[in-house]
Amino acid sequence: xxxxxxxxxxxxxxxxxxxxxxxxxxxxxxxxxxxxxxxxxxxxxxxxxxxxxxxxxxxxxxxxxxxxxxxxxxxxxxxxxxxxxxxxxxxxxxxxxxxxxxxxxxxxxxxxxxxxxxxxxxxxxxxxxxxxxxxxxxxxxxxxxxxxxxxxxxxxxxxxxxxxxxxxxxxxxxxxxxxxxxxxxxxxxxxxxxxxxxxxxxxxxxxxxxxxxxxxxxxxxxxxxxxxxxxxxxxxxxxxxxxxxxxxxxxxxxxxxxxxxxxxxxxxxxxxxxxxxxxxxxxxxxxxxxxxxxxxxxxxxxxxxxxxxxxxxxxxxxxxxxxxxxxxxxxxxxxxxxxxxxxxxxxxxxxxxxxxxxxxxxxxxxxxxxxxxxxxxxxxxxxxxxxxxxxxxxxxxxxxxxxxxxxxxxxxxxxxxxxxxxxxxxxxxxxxxxxxxxxxxxxxxxxxxxxxxxxxxxxxxxxxxxxxxxxxxxxxxxxxxxxxxxxxxxxxxxxxxxxxxxxxxxxxxxxxxxxxxxxxxxxxxxxxxxxxxxxxxxxxxxxxxxxxxxxxxxxxxxxxxxxxxxxxxxxxxxxxxxxxxxxxxxxxxxxxxxxxxxxxxxxxxxxxxxxxxxxxxxxxxxxxxxxxxxxxxxxxxxxxxxxxxxxxxxxxxxxxxxxxxxxxxxxxxxxxxxxxxxxxxxxxxxxxxxxxxxxxxxxxxxxxxxxxxxxxxxxx
Length: 716
Fold this sequence. Notes:
This protein is an alpha/beta fold. Helix 1 links the parallel strand 1 (8-13) and strand 2. The chain has an eight-stranded mixed beta sheet with strand order 3-4-2-1-5-6-7-8, sandwiched between helices. Strands 19-18-17-16-15-24-25-26 form an eight-stranded mixed beta sheet, with helices on both faces. The chain has a six-stranded parallel beta sheet with strand order 11-10-9-12-13-14, with helices on both faces. Helix content is 38%, strand content 17%. Helix 3 crosses helix 6 (178-191), helix 9 runs parallel beside helix 11 (304-319) and helix 9 crosses helix 15. The radius of gyration is 28 Å and the shape is globular.
């Protein structure tokens, strides 16, 4: 039995947002959300642990007529040994976190004064987010107290999302103080004894981009779930309003549910799930499909991405004639979500998350807590969840047959279903409650406090530039793939230089087709993925779509008019629907019967259609907006990410790659493919003809241009 003197005093710091013990104003602005709830729940959970004597959660004190008086109290007691401590911080008005940077030194000095005046001796300081990391780093050095850090959201990832959303780099710097934030994160990572994250993927894909990332300091501690909200069904759920709403769509509402809950976002891959269900008569026979995809009134009034996804959902349901088998309610409340999980469990159903990428997978944990077996994408967080809970299966989110077969397997074996249901409930209780979170947290920090687990630091240096200043872009089929034995070395070269160089793929393939090849060949996931012949740009592991690019290329684009003009042209036939997209119309081209490409261009111009017409391999003709091509997409990326074209190495192999290769980029044509459409480039100074094929040719070009060092044409 430990005495009070032997127990731990933990100091948590979360500077921004509106923090109080009850009635959290979640969602009132972007600063008061998941992190706010997390730090309050963490403080409470830690306070309940036998080894913990005291927890102080430190934040800003606010004296602002526009906020509750609760935030002006110096001390708020959450329990006998847990307090919220509010420290004065220069301007006492409520400010967004981006405007706090000039006040953080004052906050740190006042917090240090509070600690000294109250004779406090924390065993550990735990900072949350970059601003608290800045404060925590100062205090850790001044007091010689170990620092633990949780980033919650990282500046480099945030910048990527903002650029994808069309915000210019200058505006990002001005509005978000991004340089100060990233510098603070770098300093914190260099100082922290431990960094706590939610998933392994978060470590590799986000923290790995930082100069002071130290793998040995990282620890995964999944966040807790509120079991008072998510629990197994008790039978009353069938009388709920949301149950009646769901059943309105269904001819046989007593069948088991295949349940999917997500935002209407293309990355959530809902349409593929509907197709998998629509193509499986056996699955339709034994189960209904229930899609909860946000709330909607008039789809036409929604933002373009959500409108496109919801429209595709309705069209796909219609194509497969799934009326009476698929439920897709227009509205649900936050309180309905847990009831929906329990309804699905009560029906003997299954929860599925078919997202293309899933960083954590909170819905999977919520479903498991309600006794619902799960089927999930074989990416990111779901891997950890299913490994821990043993309550479901992983699937390839692009394999419709695998999705339908796996759902059928779960639903058809009632004994196995019951076993997975029970394991899920037990697994959440063991791994994903606040109690288990607090226990794992203490297991991480106690060796640091006791000095039983030495903290080793790498000899790291900051790069000269804050952001990456070069990139390697390759066509997928002709330049990169072909010899799988070359890919591991190529991937390692990219990984070794990931802090200075981005990796991009440009392809005429659609997103789903490109992703399938990337996964099949175990390619490093690209930082930028340009698909559908330069008409779509996606960033990073989470496939953030560049919506500003969408708006940019929409100029003068009239696809229905183009189809009408080319409908009766001999030698042209539309490719299958899977090859078409919003900004790309794809044809098979028969040179023996079709007009020449220049004649087709002239015909479209005569009908006032200003577009790009691209012929590849002499047999595939694509029509895209005049502002879209692989080369134009590449230059858009270079401009948005502030990378000089002279620092971009491109590898291409067909006529579709020509404008990507021409100009100021450094280019390579690999030995396996020197397409005749590119034959007139042989004399261009900045195009290197390598004698090596596929990925080996790209690596040869990296050496030829000394790409990761001087980055120039030899002899220049």
